[in-house]
C-alpha cells in the first residue's frame, strides 16, 4: 500500500506543478498568444528561461502521472473494472502522447527560438521561421488531442468515484473540471471562429484540474495510510 500512498503524493505534486505552470503561462503569454511562427520565436527568444522552464515542468508533471494513474486504478478497480481500466489507459495514453509528441513539438520551437535570438541577419531569421512553421501549425491539434485524451480518462475515473472513499464531491468536481478540459481542447482548434471563447476553458480547466489532482491525491494518500494501519493491526 506504500505504492498507493506514493501515487497520492505524486498526484499532489503534479497538481502543484499544474498551478505553477498556469502562473508561468500567464507570465509568458502576458502580451497575448502569438498567431504565427515568427511571433512564437520572438516571444520565446525574449523569454528563454520561462519558455524552457515551462517545457521542463510539463515533462516532469506528465511523468509523475504514470505511477499516480496506476495508484488511482488500484483504488477504483473494485467498482467497474473495465471503466477503471479505460480511464487509466487514457490517462497513460495522455502521458505518452503529451510527452512524446506535444511537448517534443514545443521543445523544437523553444530550441529554434534560442538560436533565433542569435541570428544576425534577416535571412537567418527567415530560415528559423520557416523551420518553426510546421511545429507551430501543429500546436492546435496536438493541444486538442492532449487535453481531450487526458480529460476523457479522468472523466471516466470521476464517474466511478461516488462509490469509493473519494466520495461524491470529488466525483462531481472531477466531472466538471474534465468536461472543462475537453471543451478547452476544442477551443484550441476553433481559434478565429465564434467558438474561440471555448479557449477560456483551457485556462480555467487547467487550473481546476490541478486543484482536483491535489484533492484526490490527498484522499489517495490518506487511503493508503489507512490500509497500512489496517495491515499492521
Describe the overall structure.
The protein is built from seven helices and no strands. The protein is an all-alpha fold. The longest helix has 39 residues, at 122-160. It starts with a helix and ends with a helix. The protein has helices at 2-28, 37-46, 48-76, 81-117, 122-160, 167-188, 200-232. Helix content is 85%, strand content 0%. It is elongated, with a radius of gyration of 19 Å. Helix 1 (2-28) runs antiparallel to helix 3 (48-76), helix 1 packs antiparallel against helix 7 (200-232) and helix 2 (37-46) packs across helix 5 (122-160). The protein has one domain.
How is the secondary structure organized here?
Blueprint: H1 2-28, H2 37-46, H3 48-76, H4 81-117, H5 122-160, H6 167-188, H7 200-232
Features:
mainly alpha, 233 residues
In a nutshell, what does this entry contain?
The chain has helices at residues 2-28, 37-46, 48-76, 81-117, 122-160, 167-188, 200-232.
What value does the Rg take, in angstroms? 19 Å
How would you classify the helix and strand content by structural class? mainly alpha
- Beta-strand residue fraction: under 5%
Number of strand elements:
0
Mean pLDDT: 89
Summed up, the domain count is: 1
Helix content: over 70%
Count of DSSP H/I helices: 7
Identify low-pLDDT runs.
Answer: none
Morphology: elongated
